[in-house]
Amino acid sequence: MSLRINQTVPDFEAETTEGPIRFHDWIGDDWAILFSHPKDFTPVCTTEFGAVAQLDAEWKKRGVKVIGVSVDDAESHRAWRSDIETYGGASVGFPLIADESLEVSKLYDMLPADAYLPDERTPNDTATVRAVYIIGPDKTLKLSMTYPMNVGRNFAEILRAVDALQKASKHGVATPANWETGRDVVIPATVSDEDAKAKFGEFTTHFPYLRMTKDPV
Ligand code: BEZ
User: Fold this and answer.
1) Closest by CA position to 165, among listed 184, 146, 196, 141
2) In 38, 70, 132, 195, which residue has its Cα 20 to 30 A from 76's Cα atom?
3) Is-catalytic flag, 15?
4) Please, which pLDDT band fits residue 130 given cuts at 50, 70 and 90?
């Protein structure tokens, strides 16, 4: 069964390109993004990992650790890393999990419906989908998204989602469609007009259930 928002994400031990980790300990008090990819040395995945590497300063600014995972082994990940760095023009400063046993892929339900799992499987038989799990410092799942093998992810959207999640968590607000930092936010319906005035100052009432206020900093 797929993971649900607000549930504590599964903990696991795994080998990575940076050595062994226990996932919850590795997250520590930070935010984390676990993202899977179908296979090392493949075209779309190389562009995606290059994009994640280029955003290194943006992840750090938000206190987010990123970690990749596929069913390839650590040696393969390390060999592929130099292609990513050449293509992306940025060093890969995050670890990649070697999930040859499929433990993580199964725990997080990352395999597509038609995954083929024969005894003599190769990573090609068990390619994971392109899953993304944004996890809070409390180790609960805040957001997930799943893309098929043939559609590369938009990491600008993932950064935007992190901004929205962190805004909501810090200020108790919600964010409207296409929100970006600096734009007005939504006051939740659970907050009375009186409390909204005390907490946010001025706000605009479009409908009694849709009130917007300046982006709190
Ligand atoms: C890719 O382009 O990333 C890809 C292609 C085939 C299988 C898995 C991944």
Assistant:
1) 141
2) 132
3) no
4) very high
Q: Model-level pTM?
A: 0.95
Residue 54 near residue 19 (C-beta atoms within 8 A): no
Q: How distant, in Å, are the alpha carbons of 66, 86, 195 from that of 92? A: 10, 10, 46
- Please check whether residue 144 is in contact with residue 134, taking contact to mean a CB–CB distance below 8 angstroms: yes
* Residues within 6 Å of ligand 1 by CB: 38-39, 42-45, 127, 149
* 121 pLDDT above the threshold of 90: no
The Cα 65–Cα 80 span in angstroms is 20
- SS (HEC) of 69-125: EECCCHHHHHHHHHHHHHHHCCCCCCCEEECCCCHHHHHCCCCCCCCCCCCCCCCCC
Which of 39, 49, 105, when mutated, tests ligand 1's pocket best, judged by the most ligand atoms within 8 Å of its CB? Answer: 39
